[in-house]
Amino acid sequence: MLSAFGRAFKTPDLRRKLLFTVSIIVIYRLGVFIPAPGVSFENVQQCLALGGATGGVYDIVNLFSGGALLQLSIFALGVMPYITASIIVQLLRVVIPRFQELHEEGAQGQTKLTQYTRYLTIALALLNSTTVVTMARSGALLGDCPVPIIPDDGIFNILLIIVALTAGTGVIMWLGEQITEKGVGNGMSLLIFTSIASAFPGAMGEIGRTQGWTIFAAVCAIGLLVIIAVVFVEQSQRRIPVQYAKRMVGRRTIGGTSTYIPLKVNMAGVIPLIFASSLLMLPGLIANFNTPQDGSLPPNWVLWINQYLVTGDHPLYMLLYFLLILGFAYFYVSITFNTEEVAGNMKKYGGFIPGVRAGRPTEQYLSYVLNRITLPGALYLAVIAMIPLIALVMFNANQNFPFGGSSLLIVVGVGLDTVKQIDAQLQQRNYEGLLR
């Protein structure tokens, strides 16, 4: 393995790509610690030291931003606006026929969809930054803090902070695209990987200090087993054989080949977890805005939401989270893998599944297999998502517990994809890859 890494850095083109990727990641991490203009860095650190940042509806956003949200840095929004915009554009293909036409046009259509995603990212960043600044101004972002995070809450200063946070999202989007074009791996995925991985040492150190080193060793052992299980499931797939009949095109004979359609056990990836977490955020966010700031007793429905739907240690929250993940897994897989489109393309190019007629029977067969394989994948996602919530009860950890949930799935998935890309480039040049 070490010799393989040595070969990677000895190859000039690959070495240049790796160093470029690392330099972009360093720039991104530096931006996490640069406070936005108009924000008091000393007051923010004082509020964080008091423990006001633990829990809350913005835990997942803070995790995906590498801790930048609760620091109110220029990169406070992280990659969440881009992720949300990408998901929305992908889902709009079902609603807007024009988006589906662009998806089917190839590279030119994908360029147009990417442009729409960028515009929507900036719009969502503007909305999110306004919400974050409003919560910081009212003191709801970091809980009960004795000092103001934004000392000067004049309209000009507030607008300056909103513009800075929105511009930071644009810079993050540009950095991710630069990695994709000139570096190694998917740029936005690597930035998410960096944000989540940066929280691992602090989370593990906190477990060791508060729970003892015996619990720390047990958590590490459990984490290793979970990582092995995630790698195994993420690499698992059902291969449906496909044969193409021979046909004459002019004087050439094409076709007659055999291939397969790979259906992954976890075709939805981490998207159902993000959907479910975002949906469960809404009740707490609504309750937060309806909580009186003068110290008076909030309405009964606000108290009920704060008791049952805000903290992850309540059984009702866990049950809703589990069921939402199952539902969103089936929903997202049905949208991203269009069995009617796949069956139509196979029939168009003379392909068929052995023992299954082309056309409608092929579509029904693919739907049957897809539904059967989505069930274990959805259950796998739900079980992995429950690990941080169980740790919240057992170890008094927060919902950003490192070994479980969306964090572990993203870290393992992005790591596997990046290593595969480096391995493929090594095989092109040395006939021997990174993996053996």
Can you give me a brief rundown of this structure?
With 436 residues, this protein is mostly helical.
Structure characterization notes:
- This protein is mainly α and about 425 residues long.
- It folds into two domains: about 35-185, no CATH class; about 200-410, Orthogonal Bundle (Preprotein translocase SecY subunit), CATH 1.10.3370.
- Helices cover about 70% and strands about 5% of the residues.
- The protein has 17 helices and five strands.
- A hairpin with a 2-residue loop joins strand 2 and strand 3.
- The protein is globular, with a radius of gyration of 24 Å.
- Mean pLDDT is about 80; it is low at about 55.
Q: What is the CATH topology classification name of the largest domain?
A: Preprotein translocase SecY subunit
Bulk shape? globular
Q: Which structural class fits the helix and strand makeup?
A: mainly alpha
**Architecture per CATH nomenclature, i.e. the level-2 architecture of the largest domain:** Orthogonal Bundle
Q: What is the rounded Rg?
A: 24 Å
Q: Point out poorly predicted stretches.
A: 53-57
Protein name: Protein translocase subunit SecY
InterPro entries: SecY (IPR026593), SecY/SEC61-alpha (IPR002208), SecY_CS (IPR030659), SecY_dom_sf (IPR023201)
Pfam family, one: SecY
Subcellular location: Cell membrane; Membrane
